[in-house]
Design a protein that fits this description.
Elements: H1 3-11, H2 33-43, E1 53-55, E2 60-61, H3 65-71, E3 75-78, E4 91-92, E5 96-100, E6 106-110, E7 118-121, H4 130-134, H5 150-160, E8 164-167, H6 174-182, H7 184-193, H8 195-220, E9 226-230, H9 243-264, E10 268-272, H10 281-286, E11 291-293, H11 304-311, E12 316-318, H12 324-328, H13 333-347, E13 353-354, H14 367-380
Parallel strand pairs: 3-8, 8-9, 9-10, 10-11, 11-12, 12-13
Antiparallel strand pairs: 1-2, 4-5, 5-6, 6-7
Helix pairs in contact: 6-7, 6-8, 7-8, 8-9, 11-13, 13-14
Length: 391
């Protein structure tokens, strides 16, 4: 069984030979450049110049082919390129370096001790009308440069390498991009008193997404096993918007997006939302969601065994393999092993599970813990896997 067969079997809610592994196939299942460099050093793997960056904002590393082979990674990202008319230009801002992305959003990182780029400028924060939104210089979602070589890379990954293929999206989520463009102060005010303006902005983002997906799926065709979308709207203890607001404002737009994705492709829909999203998981299933990520097991209501019990017939869990918040970075290797074993026992039986960490591997994670995670997956991730008896 090759990697693509393994991924497809898991997505079909059947048991492959072993639990599939993802590291670096999305910007949500990756590894920070600092942790990656330390892992390569720990394993005695040579550096081939500077480590390439997959995602500038989160400072995620491109997982090199030698590391993919060593860790037996089963899935590869096929991601779009930025528009040909836009190039990220890192500028000097005194204590920070900064840049503006193709949406006009500003991002900066402290020169001393900075690990990520954080948002600092929001181009539509002062928008008051539909006309203000229309006047914004929107990126071109179908710029041919985004798709240069996309189909060929997907075909090579699927046919020559036998890898599962994840096709990345245009940008962050519909609601998420609205928040970033407006800035959080204006965004939360909109949620309270101006949902009409917020809805118009969300519809603009959705329009661009749909144009992108129509072109991307036409380019990649049958080679996409998974299409990646996201929208973060939950926190540690609960939703950041009420379930009622989700159902009234966001769900109809997610539904339109999901229906188009299913109509244009046989790929499974991967949807990322951190935090305590359990109250709306049935809503996501109702509109056609296939894969839930990151499965934040440390958040309220997100117990891995309960999620599998209640939603495992409908959803594949992509993530949840180890708690990055409380265990992977701060625990001992033995604590990592115990957590990984528990998550495999909870989520793997019957298929419907792709192993990945709960979100990206952060810079504080020691290489010993990464290897403890991987070794435990090798030890306990072979099928058949028996679900544990737990009260």
């Amino acid at each position: 069984m090759n990697s693509r067969q393994r991924i497809r079997t898991a997505l079909a809610h059947q048991e492959p030979d072993r639990v599939p592994l993802d590291l670096g196939a999305t910007v949500l299942t990756g590894i920070h450049v600092t942790a990656y460099e330390r892992l390569r050093d720990h394993l005695g793997m040579p550096h081939r110049g500077d480590i390439q960056t997959l995602d500038v904002l989160q400072q995620l590393a491109v997982v090199d082919e030698d590391m993919r082979q060593r860790l037996k990674v089963d899935v590869r990202d096929i991601a779009p390129r930025s528009s040909a008319t836009f190039q990220v230009e890192i500028r000097d801002g005194g204590d920070y370096t900064y840049f503006y992305d193709e949406w006009g959003i500003g991002w900066r990182r402290p020169k001393i001790g900075g690990l990520y780029y954080d948002m600092f400028d929001n181009p539509l924060r002062a928008a008051q009308s539909f006309a203000d939104i229309d006047a914004h210089p929107w990126p071109d979602p179908v710029d041919p440069a985004r798709f240069a070589g996309l189909g060929e890379r997907a075909k090579n990954a699927a046919e020559l390498e036998g890898q599962g293929v994840v096709l990345g999206g245009l940008c962050g989520g519909i609601l998420e991009m609205a928040a970033w463009l407006r800035g959080f102060e204006s965004y939360f005010i909109d949620l309270a008193v101006n949902q009409r303006l917020l809805g118009y902005l969300m519809d603009k983002v959705l329009e661009l997404k749909l144009a992108y997906w129509e072109k991307a799926l036409a380019e990649v065709g049958v080679y996409a096993d998974v299409v990646q979308e996201a929208d973060d709207f939950a926190g540690q203890l609960g939703m950041l918007i009420s379930p009622a607001t989700y159902r009234a404002l966001v769900k109809p737009r997610h539904n339109k997006l999901f229906q188009v994705l299913h109509a244009r492709s046989q790929a499974s829909i991967f949807f990322h939302s951190c935090g305590a999203i359990r109250p709306v998981i049935p809503d996501l299933i109702d509109i056609g969601l296939d894969i839930l990520n990151p499965v934040q097991v440390s958040a309220a209501g997100m117990d891995s065994a309960a999620l599998k019990r209640d939603f495992g017939r409908s959803l594949t869990f992509w993530g949840g393999g180890v708690d990055t918040q409380r265990v992977l970075g701060n625990g001992t290797p033995q604590q990592v092993r115990e957590d990984v074993k528990r998550r495999i026992e909870d989520l793997a039986p019957g298929g419907g599970f792709v192993f990945a960490t709960v979100h990206n591997i952060q810079p504080n994670v020691p290489p010993e813990n990464i290897l403890a995670m991987w070794e435990t997956l090798q030890q306990y991730g072979a099928y058949p896997i028996s679900a544990p008896e737990r009260a």
